[in-house]
Amino acid sequence: MFTTILMFMLSYLIGSLVPGFWVGKIFYNKDIRDEGSGNIGTTNSFRVLGVKAGVTVLVLDLLKGTAAGLLPLLFHSNINPMLVGIGAIFGHTFSVWIGFKGGKAVATSAGVLLAYNPVFFLIIVMIFIAMLAISSMVSLSSMVSFSCAIIISLYYHDLILTIVAISLTIFVFYRHRSNISRIKNGTESTIPFGWYYNHKKSAH
């Protein structure tokens, strides 16, 4: 029991690291919480700090989840990595470093999936990329990808994976509720590529 609690605490602390906030402050003298969407995650890092910073934040947020998911291996524990990885997701969303606020945990959740099942992770990433190429919206692509994760998890006959996939999907939709409103109103931010972006651009 002590080992399980220790792993969950370490997972939370790993997840609570805020590369988006730190990269902005240290290298760009910007607080990304005050610009763009105010989010500390990948999308706002791209929007406010640029491509190089955005890619850096994406990789680091992803690796947070992967590192947390690998803790059972490090501690020689039989506990499911997905369960330990939930600590990192909470850490990213409610970071101790910035007043228990944070991002939407999409990249960190994906990192946990990478540690648990790399093939499953790659399938979800391909769905995300395909959806992004069509919709030009990171938020919509994230929600669709996690929804598909539920369906795909059933193929693996892995009860824990399915339960976690359902829980994460609900969590991701909840964290994106303002994005959902903007998508309905046609005011959601888009990235500068993809079918929807080009369609809107050609229509003006």
Automatic annotation (TrEMBL):
The membrane topology of this protein is: Multi-pass membrane protein
Provide the E.C. number(s) assigned to this enzyme: 2.3.1.275
* A GO CC term attached to the entry: plasma membrane
TM annotation in the entry: 6-28, 49-75, 81-100, 112-134, 154-174
One of the GO BP terms on file: phospholipid biosynthetic process
User: Pathway listed for it?
Assistant: Lipid metabolism; phospholipid metabolism
Name the UniProt key words of this record, in alphabetical order. Acyltransferase, Cell membrane, Lipid biosynthesis, Lipid metabolism, Membrane, Phospholipid biosynthesis, Phospholipid metabolism, Transferase, Transmembrane, Transmembrane helix
Mention one GO molecular function.
acyl-phosphate glycerol-3-phosphate acyltransferase activity
What is the recorded function of this protein according to its Swiss-Prot or TrEMBL entry? Answer: Catalyzes the transfer of an acyl group from acyl-phosphate (acyl-PO(4)) to glycerol-3-phosphate (G3P) to form lysophosphatidic acid (LPA). This enzyme utilizes acyl-phosphate as fatty acyl donor, but not acyl-CoA or acyl-ACP.
Assembly and interactions? Probably interacts with PlsX.
Q: Which family does it belong to?
A: Belongs to the PlsY family.
Q: What's this protein's name? A: Glycerol-3-phosphate acyltransferase
Gene behind this protein: plsY
